[in-house]
Amino acid sequence: MNDEGRDDPARRVVDGRFELEARLGGGGMGMVWRATDLVLRRSVAVKEVRPSDPGLAEWDPEAARLLRERVLREARALARVDHPNVVTIHHIVDGGPGTYPWIVMELVTGGSLADRLAAGPMNPVEAARIGREVLAALGAAHAAGIEHRDVKPANVLLRPDGRPVLTDFGIAAVREATALTATGSVIGTPDYMAPERVSGKDGGPAADLWSLAMMLYVAVEGHHPLRRGTTLATLAAVLAEDVPPPLRAGPLTDVLARVLVRDPAARPDAAELDRLLVRAARQTESVTSFPLQPPSAPPRDASPQPVVPPGVVPQDTTPTSLRPAPRRRRTLLLLPTAAVAVAGALVWTNLPDTDSHTSGSKGSTTAPATTSPSAGSTASPTAAPTAAATDLLTPQGIRTAVAAFEKQTGRDRFGKLTVYPEYVIAYLMVKGSDTAYDMYTYRVGQGVQKDIISSSLTGDETPVRLDGFDWDKVPALLAQARRQLKVPDPDSRYLVVDLPGNAFGDPAGMSVYLSNKYSQSGYLQTDAKGKVVRVVPYDG
Asked: What domains can be seen in the chain, in order of their start residue?
């Protein structure tokens, strides 16, 4: 943001008031930061909304102007929505023409619904309660003329008391912006998009209800019924295939069957859907013999998306999630219009949010479910580490994973590396590009698998090679984290490689995180050699 006099890069202060502390995530529509409001002395989430292409203002200034105007209009409309289940917007920083706005929001600290689902499916009572409150949030937004267009688990945050909060209305800001959609891009996450939106129609509020019902289906079943090995295959399934009846939904079965139909006019409206959810919750409460089965492994062609440890946004990964976390990219998938046919060219970028990744540190041997590999996915037959490296969050485990990534792909520049005890996620740069990357996952015994995600880094990130990182410092850093971060009963640990940042001159380094099931977290930040440069303990 070229807003001289308003931002102090040395202190990272926006508008003379909001001190940026840590990147929560970034993607195609900007970067989200954890920040401190220096006036009110409270933690907030600050999002700078900017296009995925940093050169947009130069090659299409009219598109950049429309984006800025629409973001401001949608943010102001959302700020007027006073609802306990809608993320609260505290402030908008507008630097005037030629700049992109910053949106200051409440920081929701209870993790996301994606984090909750990482532990296994919900029972129908819990799902119906979450569904009713998200439906109420959508109703409030629809009444203000705002469609969400990307309802999914990563965009439903949970307060510490479990109450859901709908967030990341970011893609609504580019709806109908013709200069931005002239290239034919689809806006949304394909798994949760209603068929009418995939086929190029606007959809209206009924499309948000489809997304909500699909989210509830995933919540109770533990897998997505239409996810396939590639993006095109998933979109084709959404367009042409019927949703199979759920097996674990119990009294929610009828609710899901009535909403997940391709004809929007045949779906119940919001008022009727609320009555159905109330009835389902009451029926479920009375059926004491309902079998609450333990989570089972989903089919390979329908496994849930990756999920982030509590406290991480995603980026997918990400979101635009608004909780303390490392820089995260995953989830809001932005295809180059608000309408596109499946046969069209698909170019994906990510927003903060995206779905998240969860791992445990107490002897866990089973990794959380991840996105199923694309049709072109391959696993290196020689990639399995030794028994000593089964815990990948060790020097040998990290070296094994990095070597497997480089051998399998022939690439050695990383846009991201996140290491959990059970698996490692990497953004590997496309050869000849400093921004475009493909996402890969490494697991013990499975080797390297390619995800469906291909995207680009934000304008202030630079890819790195990892040969200069001192992984031997990781055990000592984990021990120091346990001593100094003051996280009560930590059950999750992970390491993130921090990219050099052009905006503030940040060097490459590492961040070691600890968190617990309540999303209470802290982290150590180091340089590439493992020298600690910052300690951010849990401040509860």
From this structure: 13-106 (3.30.200.20), 113-286 (1.10.510.10), 359-540 (no CATH)
